[in-house]
Amino acid sequence: MTHENVKEKSTYEQLIVWCIATPILGTWLLVSFLPLFTAIGAWGDPMEVLVALAFLASSGISVLAAAIGYRLATWNRAGASNPPTADRTRWVLLLSAYALVWMTLYAV
Fold first, then answer.
1. For residue 42, what are the contacts with CB-CB under 8 A and spacing of at least 6?
2. Does 107 score more than 70 pLDDT?
3. CB neighbour class for 84 (10 Å; exposed up to 12, middle 13-18, buried from 19)
4. DSSP letters of 38-74?
5. How far apart are CA 94 and CA 78, in angstroms?
6. Dihedral, CA of residue 52, residue 57, residue 85 and residue 2, to nearest 10
């Protein structure tokens, strides 16, 4: 197998991962607002409010805010180098798996 064939296979795998991850992460960000409404609706029951706040703390909104905060905290003026595409694809795959587990637990 030549180097070009290996690169093409890797590119196709990354494309498939990104095509699967994009709708999962988009849905997760939309569903991440639901614990806020659950906490407001269940304001009288402390246990339901705590569960809703726990889901809100681990939601896509919180993860996105933490990622932005981390990026701003580690930002240097010279310009940050982007990680390799394979590393970004691996992180997206892990984040998509986390999002699926989060949405499954929230649905239960």
1. 48, 49, 52
2. yes
3. exposed
4. HHHHTTT-HHHHHHHHHHHHTSHHHHHHHHHHHHHHT
5. 29
6. -50
DSSP category for residue 33? T
d(CA 28, CA 57): 14
35-94 pLDDT, tens digit per residue, is 989 888 888 888 989 999 999 999 988 988 888 888 888 777 666 667 778 888 888 999
Q: Which of 22, 19, 90, 98 lies closest to 63 in space, CA to CA? A: 98
C-beta neighbour count of 55 within 10 angstroms: 20
For residue 106, report the phi and psi dihedrals to the nearest 5 degrees.
-70, -35
3-class SS at 22? helix
CA 7 to chain CA mean position, Å? 26
In the structure encoding, which two tokens stand for residue 4, read together? Answer: 């070009």
In 3D space, the residue among 63, 56, 34, 31 whose CA is nearest the CA of residue 71 turns out to be 63
Structure tokens given for 106: 């929230």
The residue with tokens 């681990």 is: 58
